[in-house]
């Protein structure tokens, strides 16, 4: 090979490497940015959910109830306009009867409605049907057994669980699951093959997270046992939604909210989070913090 040919091939090779690096950088910069309002898979359930959900039950819904029905409706609409399509409700919240009015006129197929049945209703299907009628919808996307604390809840609630399965067969509900308020209950939920969706208390400050006591109001003081269960849930393909991200409203300092949101967004086993809002400003702040956190964990 002549010196001229050698130099020519070397130049071509250098150009190809440079072009390849440029294309790699372009591909990286063109990768879709993760945001707070992305529609993300909920585990391996086959359904999608906005990464950020709006909670309607702060202090059992008293916080949102104080807005009045019109104010509550405006808040839900504002959240929807910002891209939040996951709405978290419960029969025990003061706002329960307002959900139907709040979502009236919104495209049902774009919403993800999650609600919760308390206690042991005598007629489970009748109790579930009340949610459909109250929300003015044919189906509920995710229905949870509310606030389990006992380690043997899957035995104690067997009749209720069977009712959920029947409702699922009737296509009244799409997914079934549980919200837990103790580690014994959380471990039982993870172990049970019945559970499809988990609503889990999680924040790095371990504020109002699950503890070893079988009592809803006696939380633990460390987060690792909860994360252990979250990892196991995720491995089984369950939908995992984090709650108490703002420490049940206790994180009044911005740095605490920032720390908790960054923690949740860095945990890939958590599919989505729900936060109880009372104003558009709180929604805007949460979206902004989540977007920053997601940009840093891409």
Please explain how this structure is put together.
With 298 residues, the protein is of the alpha/beta class. The chain has helices at 3-30, 62-65, 68-81, 99-103, 124-135, 153-156, 158-169, 183-191, 224-235, 254-266, 280-296, and strands at residues 39-41, 48-50, 52-55, 86-88, 112-117, 140-148, 173-180, 197-201, 239-243, 272-276. It has an eight-stranded parallel barrel, surrounded by five helices. A hairpin with a 6-residue loop joins strand 1 and strand 2. It is globular.
Order of helix and strand elements from N to C terminus: HEEEHHEHEHEHHEHEHEHEH
Radius of gyration, taken over Cα atoms and rounded to an integer in Å: 23 Å
Distance between the termini: 47 Å
Structural class: alpha/beta
CATH homology superfamily name? NADP-dependent oxidoreductase domain
- Average pLDDT over all residues: 91
- What is the CATH C-level name? Alpha Beta
Strand order of the largest sheet: 3-4-5-6-7-8-9-10
Question: Topology of this protein?
Answer:
Blueprint: H1 3-30, E1 39-41, E2 48-50, E3 52-55, H2 62-65, H3 68-81, E4 86-88, H4 99-103, E5 112-117, H5 124-135, E6 140-148, H6 153-156, H7 158-169, E7 173-180, H8 183-191, E8 197-201, H9 224-235, E9 239-243, H10 254-266, E10 272-276, H11 280-296
Parallel strand pairs: 3-4, 3-10, 4-5, 5-6, 6-7, 7-8, 8-9, 9-10
Antiparallel strand pairs: 1-2
């Amino acid at each position: 090979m002549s010196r001229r040919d050698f130099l020519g091939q070397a130049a071509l090779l250098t150009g190809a490497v440079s072009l390849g690096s440029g294309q790699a950088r372009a591909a990286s910069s063109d990768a879709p940015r993760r945001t707070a309002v992305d529609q993300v898979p909920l585990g391996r359930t086959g359904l999608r959910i906005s990464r950020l959900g709006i909670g309607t039950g702060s202090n059992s819904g008293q916080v949102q109830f104080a807005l009045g029905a019109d104010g509550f409706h405006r808040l839900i609409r504002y959240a929807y306009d910002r891209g939040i399509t996951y709405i978290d409700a419960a029969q025990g919240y003061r706002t329960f009867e307002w959900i139907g009015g709040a979502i009236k006129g919104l495209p049902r197929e774009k919403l993800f409605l999650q609600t919760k049945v308390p206690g042991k209703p005598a007629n489970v299907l009748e109790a579930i049907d009340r949610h459909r009628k109250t929300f003015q919808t044919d189906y509920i996307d995710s229905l949870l057994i509310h606030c389990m604390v006992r380690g043997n809840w899957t035995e104690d609630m067997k009749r209720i669980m069977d009712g959920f399965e029947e409702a699922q067969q009737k296509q009244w509900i799409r997914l079934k699951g549980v919200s837990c308020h103790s580690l014994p209950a959380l471990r039982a939920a993870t172990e049970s093959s019945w559970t499809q969706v988990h609503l889990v208390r999680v924040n790095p400050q371990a504020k109002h997270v699950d503890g070893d006591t079988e009592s809803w109001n006696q939380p633990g003081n460390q987060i690792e046992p909860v994360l252990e269960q979250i990892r196991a849930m995720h491995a089984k393909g369950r939908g995992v939604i984090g709650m108490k991200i703002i420490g049940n409203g206790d994180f009044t300092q911005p740095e605490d909210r920032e720390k908790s949101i960054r923690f949740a967004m860095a945990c890939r086993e958590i599919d989505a989070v729900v936060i109880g809002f009372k104003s558009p400003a709180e929604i805007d702040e949460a979206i902004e913090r989540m977007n920053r956190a997601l940009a840093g964990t891409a």
